[in-house]
């Protein structure tokens, strides 16, 4: 065979092999890949396409993660009546339930006595005790005061509603004329959605208000068209003690209604540590309507230490107004039911009140009133201890005169969600059964019993075993990875409230005793200093407690009084357990980290979060939420959902 024939034959063989390979490839059944959600981790996320939202009870802060400062506006909406003659409804600002009870005034007077005693007992920096000033001394002067007219026109106008807009937001809503056909709604109250029985109080209506306010600000202030939100992501800051159903509704609204492409949900306290540049701190967030406390260590919020007190800056404002009235406040038409008067009182509190005990005696002040359709007036007012007594209400909350209301909240166990069947209840129940079966196997090896009675006995006790696990106070104990066996009522504060240890008494008696203790605890209004000590005391180890005492971070706008830092530090040192005074080298209260506005620190922390590489796995994408729903929060949230 010649060389040419050999080459021809080898060429034919190669061609046959290629044909055979093609036939095999055609015949192979390839597995059908499931429709995978694209992996988001490969994307390069730009911070200017991330919107950070920090919704407060009185103020909304919202902006791009790259913005130096967020857009800040009153978190309020005015909605036009759909029918003529419809009754007008306006959500209260400074007024609240529990103020008009028979015991309210007596409680207020008792609180004021405790405040006066505390003021007198603490010496001034020169070593001399303060001379108390009675309200009567100021009253005699203030009752004679008449206002001076500065200008015949105040140059302040009601919001123009001639074109009948269906809704108005922020400052425009605040200046809607009460005679116009608009309802005024504040969608968040004391850190939770403002669901109530009056008009506009359904969950659907509150969610519609939130969507309208946030969409308006994003379009008008951030200048982002709503149709472009599919290119943007969102970081939502939520309270430390949150309502799971409410968070689920808000995430649903942001992803599915407004159309953000992805979201991260994180707690305000943890974001506050990011914003202030601290790794660990006891975060004290004094807001307008609530005060929340939580110990944060290395970016994790200690569930046991969470505490929410149902009072804040607006309660101080209302108490200041009561004290002003006792001292003969010269602006005699002031009403707590008026929006503009509430704004004025808020301004007077921020201007005059302080926590500096070196300032004593009677002092003269002046203030202006500028209201629509009225002249601009100048008032003189003489004040004494009222300026110090009002903010001290945060340490003696009985001064607020709130009766019959729940004043302290703890993190309650999840009630379960039909969309999330494998929640902590399921895990606790299965864990309990595993424990029982292993115990049963051990018993079989150790003791032989007739007739298989052990199995029946164990199966009959299953329900009690699970219940006992749910109701056992565990302090800092835990089991099964991240699953903590906590008190049914809240964040395992059993060590602090009931004492640790196994339950010896019958289950029903234990439950009723625990219910009584918890309801008694929640009806009490803890002072701010006592609440801080309680929160730190609920931490698991002495080392963690030591860290917290050396870094108490105060954020929010409710404690922005002159002298607040020194005042709080003095009270903490005096009341902390003697054992820790020796262990803690330096107790520190931080009120202005990096010289930043304490009201913006949590929002700033949300902006920092957007830039961290470690947050990339926390994003919940729109398609994931559509497919898996609330289960994504359990999987992706940086805190135990």
UniProtKB/TrEMBL annotation:
SUPFAM superfamilies for the chain: Actin-like ATPase domain
Alphabetical list of CDD domains matching this protein: ASKHA_NBD_Arp8-like
InterPro entries from the UniProt entry: Actin, ATPase_NBD
Keyword line: ATP-binding, Cell cycle, Cell division, Chromosome, DNA damage, DNA recombination, DNA repair, Mitosis, Nucleotide-binding, Nucleus, Transcription, Transcription regulation
Region: Disordered, residue numbers: 1-39, 431-462
GO annotation, cellular component aspect: chromosome; nucleus
Gly residues: compositionally biased ranges: 449-462
Keyword DNA repair appears in the UniProt entry: yes
Location within or outside the cell: Chromosome; Nucleus
GO function terms (MF aspect): ATP binding
Transmembrane region(s): none
Basic and acidic residues composition-biased segments: 1-26
Keyword presence, GTP-binding: no
GO annotation terms (biological process): cell division; DNA recombination; DNA repair
Biased composition (Low complexity): 431-440
PANTHER family registered for this protein in UniProt: ACTIN (PTHR11937)
Function: Plays an important role in the functional organization of mitotic chromosomes. Exhibits low basal ATPase activity, and unable to polymerize.
Similarity section: Belongs to the actin family. ARP8 subfamily.
Name of protein: Actin-related protein 8
Protein's organism: Perca fluviatilis
Upper classification of the organism: Eukaryota, Metazoa, Chordata, Craniata, Vertebrata
